[in-house]
Design a protein that fits this description.
Number of domains: 2
CATH superfamily of the largest domain: Bordetella uptake gene, domain 1
Number of helices: 11
CATH architecture of the largest domain: 3-Layer(aba) Sandwich
Mean pLDDT: 91
CATH class of the largest domain: Alpha Beta
Strand content: 15-25%
Amino acid sequence: MRNKIFSTLIAGTMLTFSGGVASAAECVAPANPGGGWDFTCRQIGKILFDIGEVDKPVQVTNMPGAGGGLAFNTVVNERGNDDDLIVAASTATTTRLAQNAYAGMTADRVRFVGAIGADPGVIVVAADSPYKDLGDLVDAIKENPRSVAFAGGSAVGGFDHMKPLMVLGKSGFNDITKVKYIGVDGGADAITQTVGGFTQAMTGDMSEIVSFLDNGDIRVVAVLTDERVPGFEDIPTAKEQGFDVVAVNWRGLYVPKDISDAKFDEWAGKLRKVADSDAWAKAMQDNGLAPFTLVGSEFQSYVDGLVSEINTLSKELGVIQ
C-alpha cells in the first residue's frame, strides 16, 4: 500500500513537472490572480489547449506592477521576439499607453493581436429623466454644457470619462473641458449619484448596471457597441442614433513586436478559433461579456485609432501635456 501511494505521488509530480516545463506557449497576466487580465489568460489558454490549437497546456504567469506597465516593459525590453508569448490586455492597457502612464512606452512597441469579448460601454440616465434618448442628452449639453454632469467609476481622464466625450466629438461639440464629470468609487456609486439626482447621467459598463436596470431605476440611452447586445436588444446603440462610437472594455491579447508576420497571423487565427468556440461563448455568458471579435490587422487598426483618440482627448482635458 505504501509503495502504491509513493508511486502515485511520483507520477503526479512528474505530470505537473512535465506540464510546466513542456508548455510551449506562455500567457502573461499583468496583475495578480483573480482579475480581468488573469481571467483572459486562463480562459483563453485553457480553450486553446482544449480545442487543439496548442499541443501543450499554456503556462500562465502573473506579473503585477504599474497597472500593466511592468509586463509591458518586460516584453519590450527582454522578450521582443518571443514567438510563444502572449499577454493579456484590455481597454485599460490602451488608455494608459495613450496617457503615457508606462514611462515613455508607446503602443507601437508591441503588436495587438486581437480582442474576443468585451464589457460594453453604456450611457445611463435615471428612469424619470427628461432625457429620453442619447440625442436629447447631447442636445442639452450643446445648448448648455454645464447643465449635464456625468458620474463614472474611473478617475478624471479615465475611460469612463472618455466615453461621453467621444460621443460629443461625433456631434461636432469639442469644448470638452466644460463638460462636468465626477469620478466616484465604482459603477454602483456612479448610478446612485444619478438616480439620486446629484448627476444627470452615468457613464460605465454594462456589467455595472444590470441589477439597476432590472429594478427599473435607470434608462440606458445608449450602448457603445457596433450592434445591440444579446439579451438587451431593446437598448439602442449610439451608432444607430447617429453617433459613430464604439467604446467597450475589450478583453484580448498583445504579442512582442519583433515576431514574424507569419507568427502574428498564426496567433490571430488561433484567437479567432477560440472566439468561435462553444467554450468561449459559455465563458462570456458566465462572466457578463458580450461578443466583440476583432483580430489581426483589423484589431491593430482599431487600437491605433483608440490610442490616438484618447491621447487627443487627454491633452484637451489637461490630463497629459
